[in-house]
């Protein structure tokens, strides 16, 4: 089953452009360096909060990614635009479409 990382975070209004500018490089670094990374969606919520929905092949892949932290420049730049994390959760997709 696919593991989903749900991270809600706060971005100061003056950092939104920086966050969005850093996103492509962060995703490229994840694709290059994070085993099991399947993709991500960034959702802007009301106010100054955002939700990052990241799909991982397995819970182990997600755990390995967390252990690496901001180890590459694109990931670091994205993380630096975040004021603070509001919440972080992990779950599994239970209704995956079958092809």
UniProtKB/TrEMBL annotation:
UniProt GO molecular function: monooxygenase activity
Superkingdom per UniProt: Bacteria
Keyword annotations from UniProtKB, A to Z: Monooxygenase, Oxidoreductase
Matches recorded under InterPro entries: ABM_dom, Dimeric_a/b-barrel
Domain ABM: 6-66
Pfam families linked to this entry: ABM
UniProt-recorded name of the protein: Antibiotic biosynthesis monooxygenase
Organism: Sphaerisporangium rhizosphaerae
